[in-house]
Amino acid sequence: MENNQQNLLEKKIYALVHRPLFMFTLFSSTSMTVLGGTIIATSIPAIESHFANVPHIDTLSKLILTLPALFVMLFSPVSGILLDRFGRLKFLIPSMFLWSISGMLGAVWDNIYWILFTRAIFGISTAFVMTSASALVADYYVGEDRQKALGLQGFATACGSAIFMCLGGFLAHYDWHYPFYVYGIGVFLAILVILELFEPRTRKKTQLIEDTKDRMDIIRLIPCYLFGFFIMVTYYTSPTQIPHLLTQKLSINEILVGFCISASALAYGLSSLFYPKIRAILSVKLIYIIGFACMGSGFFLIYFAYNFHLIATGLLIVGVGGGAIMVNNSSFLLSITPKQHIAKAMGILSATSFFGQFVSPILSQPIVRQYGISYVFLVSSFILFALSVIVAYKTK
């Protein structure tokens, strides 16, 4: 009798988490974290011009895009510990409201340092949104369903990124302040979360005691964290450097810049969506090898490209490799992490990935000053090719 009731409950939960509106709400909340940078990426050159009298504005303007990543890095591990202990939704919902409000505040200030301050608050809220939403995906879905869910998560993230990159480019063409107002969509999504999502069932204390025997093997997870870091260091050269390359070197307007960068996000999303089919053909190791090589090839093409169409093609290739790798990395990490440590593991992955975002312009800007923007993409391609070779020869 008890088993029948348990099976009936599991069937109801399965039906609930596969409803279209439920999945839209869940994956929209996960996609918010990437929208943090893509919405305002095309505004960066205009912001740099507006604050041209501020010392080191070439670096400060790019920190508007990547400073939140530093605070995601600092607070993601903390959020993971809190989520595993106290639950998901009680942190997700207020964090979504804070994400939206702090994001919009960037349009209010006419002081670069106040803008950076609000971006720091934005980063803290992003840490809790990203970790809690990702943990919910892992809670709601298991096995093959989880692989499909991670693919859909990547697809939703990339599609949202592509749409809002185009919207941000359109708005930035008229005024650099306007894209910041797009963060207001977070309020709408937070209301949907309140109405649609539910807190996963908590386990009994006896089960928690038994779970302590399964400790998180951090050594085994280190490669996943390193891959997440290097992927973001290289991938984020696109939104931080491509707008300058296109507007300053090729005189392309902001609207077309938005469409160009969104090409990479669109390819990223399609690659993520088809990850379960890719995984059915290729091993985890081969997806890493091919994905890194694909990203490296895309950046290598951008290095040689001096026209809009070739750069867009290079970004498409980068997106194809990046989407497959990111889903592969998350899926592999979850497959080797005990269930009771999922939020902590995802929190650390968020920290290392967003730290890669933060240091990306800091590492790339000296190359830009010394050699020019194009050489950033050459260095990125070498890093990615090296990772492909390392995975091929140094892993089982």
Explain this structure.
By secondary structure, the protein is mostly helical. Helices cover 82% and strands 0% of the residues. It is built from 17 helices and no strands. The chain has helices at 2-17, 20-38, 44-50, 57-86, 89-104, 112-140, 143-172, 185-196, 205-211, 218-235, 237-249, 254-273, 275-281, 284-304, 308-335, 342-371, 374-394. α10 runs antiparallel to α15 (308-335) and α12 (254-273) runs parallel beside α15 (308-335). Residues 203-212 have low confidence and may be disordered.
Would you report the number of β strands? 0
- Mean of the pLDDT scores? 83
Helix content: over 70%
Pick out the low-confidence regions.
Answer: 203-212
Terminal residue distance:
46 Å
Tags for this model:
396 residues; mainly alpha; 82% helix; globular
Detail the topology: elements first, then pairings.
Elements: H1 2-17, H2 20-38, H3 44-50, H4 57-86, H5 89-104, H6 112-140, H7 143-172, H8 185-196, H9 205-211, H10 218-235, H11 237-249, H12 254-273, H13 275-281, H14 284-304, H15 308-335, H16 342-371, H17 374-394
